[in-house]
Amino acid sequence: MDYKERYERWMSQVPAGDSLRSQLEALAGNESEMAERFSQDMVFGTAGLRGITGVGTNCMNYYTVGRATRGIADYIRKAGPAAMEKGVIIAHDPRHFSEEFSRLTACILARSGIRVYTFPGMRPTPELACLIRVMKTTSGINITASHNPPEYNGYKVYWEDGCQVSAEVADGMMRCMENLDYFADCDIDFSEYDDLIREGKIILLGEKEDRIYLDMVKALAIHDGDELDLSIPIVYTPLNGAGSIPFSTMMKERGFTNVRIVPEQKDPDPDFTTVGYPNPEDPKAFRLSEELGKKIGAQLLMATDPDSDRFAIELMGDDGEYVPLNGNQTGYLLVNYILEGHRDAGTLPENGAMIKSIVTSSLSEEIAASYGVKMIEALTGFKNICGRIPYLEKHGYRYLFGYEESVGYAACPEIRDKDGISAGMLVAEAAAYYKKQGKTLFQVLSELGDRYGYYAEAEPNLVLKGISGAQRIRRMMDSIRANLPAAQTVPAPQDAPDAARGQSSESLSGIPALWGSVAGIPVTKVIDYKDGYGDIPASNVLRFFLENGSWFAVRPSGTEPKIKFYFYSKQDSPEKAREVNDAIKDDVLERISAVE
Questions:
Q1: Which of 393, 428, 382, 406 is closest to 222 using CA atoms?
Q2: Is the dihedral of CA 535, 539, 545, 550 positive or negative?
Q3: What pLDDT shows up at residue 317?
Q4: Residue 514's pLDDT is what?
């Protein structure tokens, strides 16, 4: 069935009066938009389903959410009565239709004989991940588009290990969805939701479960009491998302006395009116935080995204202006604080290990090594990062921390996803700890450069929307692979954590058409993960290592219409590192942009 036939079927099925009906009628004669919305079905990426809300098989709406949920229900039913009885936890963020989609999901699962747990209001993604393991449910679903713009929504799916679904589970769910009709069993009657609660088929969670999560976060504290200056001025913004109540509760219980929440961004707002793009990774999201911070003299500004899994900070620099930190830099501070804190407290284990993604800076590996701690690698996404925790436990290591450069941090081994609330608590604790010693986090970051060398990081991306954009991204990746140096790769051994670090031998030979050198610097090693590498599964990622110690990586995003780049250079001064990194970045982006 082509996109026109799909469109006509939806026209015949969506009833008059449905808001989606008017959207369908508006598409008449608009072939390109019709194709964008109906040429393909939504599929699971690194974070489940995600897309623009609206009509179409490639958008988030009642019919696509209903079809996905019925497929998941079939998958759980096939797992047997025990899996159905263990049930599913459902949460949601403040976005448009998030509550409605979560109620629809709850009703479909409960109708299918699957026990359902849900909340009366929005909750952070990491709380959902936490409770899946605590309550031993089969699955969890969060209706959220994380940090995407307001027109998006999404559907994150978790499995019983508390991680987002693995490729194997996602593929199984997709097979269950493939043959389902969008309009079969699609009646939407939200009064049924209240009936199912009264019947005990949908169970509401609340303060008891919130307490479990907050206590787990607070247990991560390394220093406390007189070791901290709890009067340190801090500004926090939840960016109109789910973080406001849990974060303020946690900080109050930790004893912080001078924490201010940006008032315009404290309460839910599905349009994110004051910020537009609610991504804490974007310095523009800190505009109101900076204004408030300067009024109260805050040394630290912190932000979480709408579902509170992403976390970013700005620090007051020596000149009194705020300096935005990228995800790698915040990671340096957290890795160093956790290891230094445990060492000073006498709680640093001999068998400690941390995890970072393959596109995250190598500096954290150097920091970890200086404390005698292993740093292993995983594919991007916390289903991969936290999915490595059982591997560490099997090999006798104690997990201390995991993170990736896209402002995601996981400090608790029992919360198998990135957690902006716990990251915020640890950064606030670190700021209070160093303030007690007469230092700021900005000064600590500078000291890390003095000790380990200065790294420059750049993470540009090209946004290429729609079907044509996805096709161009594929051509870009194909073009790079078609012009690689000839290489022989010897897979890394698979019986130790070091295997995940990409420690294998490659030799490059031949004269490549394009990628034998970058910015005049010879390429010494290329790792292509398309068929897997060592014990790291297959992924559409390439990493290039240069003769001067710099390296870069490229991959398509799994959740957004982007091709993403990661550039790293280490030199003996920040200025030189930026100069070298910029030259490499500019050369790569010029070459890739030439691919039409």
A1: 428
A2: negative
A3: 94
A4: 76
DSSP characters over 298-327: -SEEEEE-TTS-BEEEEEE-TTS-EEE--H
Question: pLDDT per residue over 6-43, tens digit each?
Answer: 999 999 999 998 889 999 999 998 999 999 999 999 87
Alpha-carbon gap, residue 455 to 27, rounded angstroms: 50
Enclosing H/E stretch for 337: helix 327-345
Indicate the SS3 state at residue 151.
coil
CB 478 within 8 A of CB 352: no
Please, what are the domains in the chain?
40-205 (3.40.120.10), 224-452 (3.40.120.10), 457-593 (3.30.310.50)
Residues 245/311, Cβ–Cβ less than 8 Å: no
Residue-wise pLDDT for 423-436, tens only, equals 999 999 999 999 99
Query: What confidence score (pLDDT) does residue 47 get?
Result: 64
Q: Is 146 a catalytic residue?
A: yes
Interstrand relation of 352-357 and 398-404 (parallel, antiparallel or unpaired): parallel
Q: Give the separation between CA 577 and CA 2, rounded to whole angstroms.
A: 51
Q: Residue 340 and residue 592: Cα distance in Å, rounded?
A: 41
273 Cβ neighbours under 8 A, 6+ residues apart = 240
**Res 189: pLDDT:** 73
Query: Taking a C-beta distance cutoff of 8 angstroms, is the pair 128, 205 a contact?
Result: no
Which run of H or E residues covers position 554?
Answer: strand 551-556
Query: What is Dmax (Cα atoms) for the chain?
Result: 71
| C-alpha to C-alpha distance for 313 and 305, rounded to whole angstroms | 12
Q: Which of 146, 289, 406, 422 is catalytic?
A: 146
CB 535, CB 364: distance < 8 Å: no
Question: Residues in the chain with pLDDT < 70?
Answer: 44-47, 186-188, 486-513
pTM of the model: 0.92
The DSSP element (H or E) to which 102 belongs, if any, is: helix 98-111
Nearest CA to 497 among 377, 371, 364, 372?
A: 377
Give pLDDT, residue 11. Answer: 96
Determine the Cα–Cα distance for residues 246 and 415; give it in Å rounded to an integer: 15
Torsion of the alpha carbons at 567, 571, 573 and 575, rounded to the nearest 10 = -40
Residue bearing tokens 């987002």: 164
Strand partners for 310: 408
Q: Is 223 exposed, middle or buried (0-12, 13-18, 19+ CB in 10 A)?
A: middle
Nearest to 367 by CA among 398, 328, 393: 328
Distance of alpha carbon 131 from alpha carbon 206, whole angstroms: 12
Q: In 10 A of CB 267, how many CB atoms? A: 12
- Over its C-alpha atoms, the chain yields an Rg (Å, rounded) of 24
Report the pLDDT value the prediction gives residue 486, as an integer from 0 to 100: 66
